[in-house]
Design goal:
The chain is an all-beta fold. It has one domain. It is built from no helices and six strands. The chain has a six-stranded antiparallel beta sheet, with no helix packed on it. β1 and β2 form a beta hairpin. The chain is globular.
Length: 87
């Protein structure tokens, strides 16, 4: 299981999370899709975004209809799902 897309859980027991991003020539990086455990979710809408001194937050709607709140730790470039609401 060396391929991260096959990984189901992180070492702390949480579902594995990978966020794929896109940055335009003038824009900050923003999430386009995420892999949460075995599920792949495309971002259909960025509902909101905001900053604090160490993190960037994105409230997203996925192609599964769910609402995701992602936190990006800009210091160590790691992502975390802080909220999930089903459709």
């Amino acid at each position: 299981m060396n391929d991260p897309s096959e990984k189901q859980r992180d070492t702390d027991g949480r579902p594995f999370l990978r966020v794929k991003c896109y940055a335009g020539h003038c824009a900050d990086t923003e999430p386009r899709s995420l892999q949460l455990g075995p599920r792949a979710v495309a971002v259909t809408e960025i509902i909101d975004r905001w900053l604090d001194p160490c993190h960037r937050y994105f409230k997203l709607r996925g192609d599964d209809g769910g609402i995701y709140l992602l936190r990006h730790d800009t210091t160590n470039d790691s992502w975390e799902v802080t909220l999930y609401e089903t459709a």
